[in-house]
Specification:
The structure is a homotetramer. By secondary structure, chain A is of the alpha/beta class. Helices cover 41% and strands 25% of the residues of chain A.
C-alpha cells in the first residue's frame, strides 16, 4: 500500500484524491493546501491528515506526491519532492519557462525519482484505444494526424493572463498527443492564429483560434486546430490517416438520446468539459502512475515529454510573432 | 429493342416513362391516358404515340405494357393485356378483392405471360444490399425481421376512402418486404391498430398507427410498425437479426450536412417521400423487368407475391376487427 | 446519515455496496451473506460488520435494507424487513409467483414502509433523458413505444431453469420500461416466441427470441423485441413515436473509435453487458432511494410496479401457451 | 432552347452530354472529338452532329460550348470560342501556366462572353446546403474552414506527369472551396507535403500527402488536408467553425446498410470516386450554367476563380520548394 501526499486540494486535486481512494494499492496520507479549511475537510473525507509541505516530505512513509497546485509552484515542489526521494506526479506544466524546466528536470534526474506528467489524454479510453490499434499495426504506418481541440468557452481574464497563452496552456496537451501518435519527433512547426472568439482574450494579448502544422523527417505530418470557444461544447477529436486506412475518435455525447422532428434529427452535444470527458482518463492516469511505481517502470509521460511539449509551444509563439516556419530541436 | 405501351401517365406513370428512356433495351411506343392532353404531351416528350387501349394492345410490335392507372382498373387491364399476349408490369395491387385477384391471376397463368408486380422496395439499393448480404450467408440464418415504415403525413380523405385501408394500401409493401427477407411464409399474424395521428383518417373509418407481428413455422418472426404521420419525414428502415448478428438499413438523409450549436447536433431529415427515397428503386425495378423479359426468367415479384401480400393485409384487417391472432393460408 | 444493511454480497450486492460508499448521505453498517468469508471481507472494505439477518434487523439504528439475495428469498426478506420497520430496496422480482407477491406487498402496505424495486433502467442517463424529454411535452403525446432488448448470450442452464423463463427474468425489465414510457396501463398483450439461439434454452423448455405487443385503451401501443443472444453485444435501445416526432436512445459504444478501411467503416460494439451499460444507472438508482427516504416521497419504482410487470410476464407466458391475445387486469 | 457544342466526348464530356439531355432548356447540336468514332456515336445518341471545331464555332445558332478536352487545349479553345462569341463552360483549369491564364482571360474579357469554370463541388447538394446555411447567417460568422480531400488512389504515372502536380491538379478544387466558404481572399499560405502513399508519384517528382494552411486578413483561416490514397474510398468532407457553432458535411455512403457482429458495427465506405459522389453536382452545375445564360447573370465560378485557385496552387508549390510561408496576391 503506497502512501500519498496530495499538494493542492483544488478542483483537480479533489479529482485525484477521489481516484486515490478508488485505487486498492494506495491511500492518501497527507493533504497540503494553502487554504487550511480545504485541507482539513479533504483530509477528513479520506482519512488523511492536513499538514505542511515540510511535514509531508519529511515523512519517510510517504512514497509519492501528487502536485496539483498552481503552475508557478510546480518546479519548486518537484525539486523539493525529488530531493526528499519521493515519486512525483505533477499536473502540466513543469513551468512556463524552458530554462526553469531544464533546471528542474536536472534535479529529478540527479535524484533518480520517477516523475509522471499529467498528460491525461493519453489515458482517455477512446484515445488509448486508437493508440493501441495503431501500435497493433492493423492499420499500417501513420501518415497524418489531425487533432481537433476546442474548449466550450474561454477562461476568465485573470486566468488567461497567467496561463502562458493559448499554446502553452491549451495546445500543450495537443502537442503531447501529436508526438504520442506520430511516434516520431516533428522537425518543423508552423502556426497561424487570431483572436476571434472572445474580446477579453484579445485584450489580454492572447489568441483564441489557431492552426498548427507539424512535419516529421520521414514525411509524416500533423495538424492541430484550436479554439477557445465551441458553442456546441468541448470538442476533442482525433483522426489518424495511415497506409491501411483511417482511425477516428469522436466526442462522447452527453447521452445517446436523439430527437427527430420536422426541424431535423438532433443528437446531444459532447460532454461539457474536461472534467466530464476525461473523468475516466484521470482515474486511469493515476492507476498508471501507481502501477508504474509498483513495477518500477516509467511507461507514462515523463518530465521530458513535458519539456518537449513546451518547446513546441514556444515555437508556436515564435511562429505567430514572426509569421515564419520554426525548426524544432529538442536537444 | 423492346416496345412498351404505358397505361396511365400520372405521377407514377411519368416516372416509369423517364426510366424507360434511360434503359437502352426498350423504348416507349404508346401512351394511353384518360386525359388526352397528358397522353399527347407525354408521347411527344418520349417520341411515342398517344393511342387507345385497344390500339396499343392490337399492335403485335408491343412487347410489354406498364399498368400505372388507378387501382380499380388493374385487374381488367392485366387480363386484357394477358389475352393480347403482352408481358405485364403492374403497380400494386392487382385488386383490393382477393377473389378478383385469384380470377385475374388465373387468366395470366392460362395465357402464360410474365407479370411483374411493382414492389419497388426490393430494388432500393439499401434494401437489396441487405438482401444480398443475407443471401451470402455472411450473417447466418435469419431470426427476426423488424420493419419501420412511416409516411410523412396521411393522404387526403378521398384517397383514404378508396385505398382499401392502411393494411391494403401502405402495409402491403411491408408485407412483401417481410416475406422477401424472412424467405419463409408466415403462418400467423396479429395486428393492433388505432387512429391517433389524423382526424380525417378516423372519420374515414381507417386506422393510422399499427403494429403487426408475423410468425413462421421455423420460429422466425417479424414485426412491422406503421404510422401515417412522421413529422420528421418518410421513415423506411429495416433491421434483420440473424445468428451471426444484425443488419440495419437506415434512412437516407436529404444531405449529409449537420449543424452543431449550443442546442445540440442537428442532422438532416430523411428524404421527403417515396418519389425521392425510391427514385433509384423505380429505375432498377424497370431494369429488372426488361432484363427478365430478355432472358425469359421471372426473377422479380410476380402476381403470386401480390396475392400473398393481399392475403396478409386481409388477415390484418380481420385481426383488428376480432382482436384475435389470424392463421395465414396462401393455398 | 442513513445506516444501511446489505443482504447478499454477490455480484449485484457488491455494486450497491460501492454505490453506498459514494453517496454522502448513507453508509453501510451491516453485511449479511450466507458465505461468511464474503460477508467479512465486504464488511472490512466498507467499514461495516458482518452479522446475521436477525442482528441486522434488530438494530434500530438501521434505516434501510438492500435485498440482493437470490430470488427465492426476496419475499420473505421483504416481509421480515417490513415488520422490523426498515425501508426496503429490493432487486427484482419480489417473487415469481403473483400470489406470493400479493401477500408480500400486503405486509409492506400494513407496515407502511417504503419499498423500492430495482428497475434500474429508469435511472440509465439515456433512458431518463428520454423520459424527461417526453414529460416536458416537447415531442407531444406518445403514440408508440418500441423497445429492443437483447442479451449478448444466454445464461447457463441452471440459471435458466430457476429464472422463471424469458418473460419473468428478462422481459420483466422491458415491461417496466414500457409502462413507464407509455404512462398508461396496457389492456392487452400478445406474445410470439421461439427457441432459436441456444440449444440449452430449448432443452430447459424456455424460449430465447420473442416479440411482445402491448395495446392501451387510448390507442397507444408498444412492442418489445427480445433475444437471449446478440453477437454484437448487449443491445438496449428505445424508440418513442409521439405526435411531434421520434425520440431514440441508442446503445453506448465501448469507445468512440472507428476504423475506415477498404472493408468499410467499423465502429465499436455496445458496452458488453448490464454491469457496464447500467453502471451509472445502479448508482443513480441508489441515490434516488436514499433521496426518497430523506424527503419521504416514493418517486421511484415501488412494489406495485414489480407486481404489474410480473402480471404482464405471466400474461406473456399464457399468450405463448395458447397462441392467443391476453387481456391485462392489474386489480 | 439553347444549342450546345461539346468539345471533347471523353469521360467527363459524356457526363455533360447526358446532363444536357436532362435539361429542358438546352440541347446538344454538335460533338467535337479527336476520335471521330466517339464523336459520331455520341452525336447519334443525343441527336447531334459530329463536326470539326471550326464548323461548330462558325454556326451562329450555337449559343454555348462545353470544353471537356485535355488541359493543354483549354486556353486555346476558350479564346477561339470567345472570339466566336460563344458562352463558355470549361473544365478546370484554364491552363497550368498563370501567364497563359492571364492572356486567355484578357481575351474573354475583351469579347465579353460568359465563362464558367467547372468547379463542380460548389454544386454538390451537401456542400451547397452548407454554403446556403452559412449565407443565411444562422451559424454566425466564419472563423475556420477545414477541408478533408482524399482520392481513393493515385492516378497512373503518365497522368501524374502532365497533371501539374498535386496542388494544381487536385488541391485546386479545395482552394476554390476554401475561397468560396471563407468568403474572403486569403493573404498567406503555408504547405507541407511528402510522398508517402505511392511509389510512382515519388518517382514522378510529385507529392501525394499534404497539409495547406490559409490565413485571411480578418483572422479567418482554413486548412486543407490531402492524400492521393484513401483505402476506404473517396473522402470529401468539410467542417466550418463559426461564431454560432460548427457545420459539417460528411461523405455519402454507398448504401445505408450496416452490419453488427462480434467484430463491431460496420457501415459502408464513401461512394467510390468523383463520378459517383459528384453525379448530382455535375448535373446541377450544368443547370446553373444554362440558367445563368438565360438570365444573363454569372452567379457561378468564373475565369477569375480559376485564376485565383491556380495562384494558390503555385504558391503551394513554392512553399514546398522553399519551406516558407507564401504571401498571396491576386492582382
Amino acid at each position: 500500500m503506497l502512501n500519498i501526499a496530495l499538494f493542492g486540494a483544488g478542483r483537480i486535486g479533489q479529482i485525484h484524491a477521489g481516484n486515490v481512494s478508488l485505487n486498492p494499492d494506495c491511500q492518501l496520507k497527507y493533504i497540503v493546501d494553502m487554504n487550511h479549511e480545504v485541507a482539513v475537510n479533504t483530509a477528513k473525507k479520506y482519512g488523511a491528515q492536513a499538514v505542511s509541505i515540510e511535514e509531508a516530505l519529511a515523512d519517510s512513509d510517504v512514497h509519492a506526491v501528487l502536485i496539483c497546485t498552481i503552475t508557478e509552484t510546480h518546479a519548486d515542489l518537484i525539486e523539493r519532492s525529488a530531493k526528499a526521494g519521493k515519486a512525483i506526479f505533477c499536473e502540466k506544466p513543469v513551468d512556463l519557462s524552458i530554462d526553469r524546466v531544464d533546471a528542474c528536470l536536472e534535479v529529478v534526474k540527479t535524484q533518480k525519482v520517477p516523475l509522471m506528467m499529467g498528460f491525461n489524454r493519453r489515458y482517455d479510453p477512446n484515445f488509448s484505444h486508437l493508440k493501441n490499434t495503431l501500435d497493433s499495426g492493423d492499420i499500417g504506418t501513420v501518415e497524418m494526424v489531425t487533432i481537433s481541440s476546442r474548449d466550450p468557452e474561454a477562461p476568465p481574464s485573470h486566468y488567461i493572463k497567467s496561463s502562458g497563452g493559448l499554446f502553452r496552456d491549451m495546445t500543450i496537451h495537443d502537442f503531447d498527443v501529436a508526438r504520442w501518435l506520430l511516434n516520431e519527433e516533428p522537425v518543423s512547426l508552423y502556426a497561424t492564429a487570431s483572436s476571434m472568439t472572445s474580446e477579453h482574450v484579445k485584450e489580454a494579448g492572447d489568441v483564441d483560434t489557431a492552426i498548427i502544422t507539424l512535419t516529421c523527417k520521414s514525411g509524416k505530418m500533423a495538424v492541430i486546430t484550436n479554439s477557445r470557444r465551441a458553442s456546441y461544447g468541448y470538442d476533442q477529436r482525433v483522426e489518424v490517416h495511415a497506409s491501411g486506412g483511417m482511425l477516428t475518435v469522436n466526442n462522447m455525447p452527453e447521452s445517446t438520446l436523439s430527437m427527430a422532428t420536422e426541424k431535423g434529427i438532433t443528437s446531444q452535444k459532447p460532454m461539457a468539459f474536461f472534467l466530464e470527458r476525461y473523468a475516466a482518463a484521470y482515474r486511469l492516469e493515476l492507476d498508471a502512475f501507481i502501477a508504474g511505481l509498483s513495477v518500477g517502470v516509467e511507461n507514462y509521460p515523463i518530465g521530458e515529454d513535458g519539456r518537449k511539449a513546451l518547446i513546441m509551444a514556444d515555437a508556436a509563439v515564435k511562429s505567430i510573432a514572426t509569421g515564419q516556419v520554426q525548426l524544432l530541436t529538442f536537444d
